[in-house]
Design goal:
The protein is of the alpha/beta class. The chain is built from 10 helices and 13 strands. Helix 3 packs across helix 6 and helix 9 runs antiparallel to helix 10. It is globular and about 75 Å long.
Length: about 350
């Protein structure tokens, strides 16, 4: 099968060039289960394991293969398997802090062109969560698209769409109900041949149902959502890359209980564009927006031009990243704690003013 069918292009060919002379061949990771990988090579699918040397030199899990990665492999004909000797340079990667670690990066999906951030218009709906996902999506290097699913279950769906558009400037926002016949009309323009898309979001928001509709069969088994708490019961417990009949490629991911942020300057800048722009208008370049004279951010809060809850979430995300940086560098810990206290007081004052207005 042609590698181009799975997204191979000049970018990856250039990254593979140093390994061609060693008799290795390129393949793409389409499934990972513990330490076993399923790869798509030109000659077909094969199981593989990471070479001991690659595992030894990797500085963390993020440098090991993830679903969507292109890798350089050596066949082992006697076992009908292969060994992964290198991970090729990534065009993009959607990453988060791995659960239960002290800030270790976990790559959720690699070499994705478009990331669909799926939000359920039920109890899952939360604009602040959308902002969190957008930070990670922008940092990934892929194009984000927000999908508001379960429109048939929510009153005021259009108003919620407008609310998300306000917190996601420049990002397409698709309103849909995955079970309707015309459900995919808003999604299909972003699903292109030889391009890779990924669906991320909380458990039960309908990611697997959308994937099933795109593939045309129930490749990702789903169950009805429990009416009592709106949480999904679906069996997507691993990441997998699937080829669609249209020629597009799709990665479904398990539902995330939480999305812990990595340090992401680009993500913050793109997600909170208007706040970053206001900060650039402050009188002092190092303004902390805590009461300094000439603070454009505080002025916008006072006039209502800047939403206090959105600014509060902005500060929360900043604090989370600073806390992560402090954990990685103990020398910053004390300074981070003191700054967090000052910012917390500033947020409380802004929210009180909003309540009085």
């Amino acid at each position: 099968m042609s590698l181009e069918r799975f997204g191979w292009d000049e970018f990856f060919a250039e990254g593979f060039a140093p390994f061609a002379a060693d008799g290795l061949e390129p393949a793409r990771v389409i499934l990972q289960h513990n330490k076993i990988y399923l790869l798509q090579a030109e000659s077909g699918e094969t199981q593989a394991e990471v070479a001991g040397r690659l595992r030894h030199v990797a500085r963390g899990a993020a440098e090991l293969p993830a679903v969507g990665d292109w890798v350089a492999i050596k066949r082992r004909p006697e076992r009908s398997t292969a060994t992964i000797h290198a991970v090729l340079p990534r065009r993009s990667k959607f990453s988060r802090v791995a659960a239960g670690t002290r800030g270790e990066e976990q790559v959720v999906a690699a070499n994705v062109d478009t990331i669909f951030l799926v939000v359920g218009l039920d109890s899952d709906f939360n604009p602040r969560r959308v902002e969190r996902y957008l930070i990670t999506a922008w940092e990934s290097g892929a194009r984000p698209v927000v999908v508001l699913n379960k429109a048939d279950l929510a009153e005021g769906a259009e108003e919620r769409r407008r609310e998300v558009e306000r917190v996601a400037p420049g990002v397409p926002v698709v309103l849909m109900s995955a079970k309707r016949d015309d459900a995919l009309e808003g999604v299909l323009p972003f699903v292109e041949p030889r391009k890779t898309v990924a669906f991320v979001g909380s458990s039960g928001v309908g990611k697997s149902t959308i994937v099933n509709r795109l593939v045309g069969s129930e490749v990702q088994k789903t169950r009805e959502v429990r009416a009592s708490d709106d949480r999904g019961q679906h069996t997507t417990t691993h990441r997998e890359l699937l080829a669609l009949p249209s020629g597009a490629l799709i990665i479904d991911t398990p539902g995330m209980r939480e999305l812990q942020l990595l340090v992401s300057e680009r993500g913050m800048r793109e997600t909170f564009e208007e706040i970053e722009a206001l900060a650039g208008q402050c009188r002092f370049g190092d303004c902390r927006h805590e009461g300094e004279p000439g603070c454009a951010v505080r002025e916008a809060l006072a006039t209502g031009a800047l939403d206090a809850e959105r600014f509060s979430n902005y500060l929360k995300m900043r604090q989370e990243m600073q806390h992560l940086a402090a954990r990685q560098d103990p020398r910053l810990a004390r300074e981070e704690r003191e700054r967090a206290k000052r910012l917390s007081r500033a947020v409380s004052q802004a929210l009180k003013r909003k309540g009085k207005s």
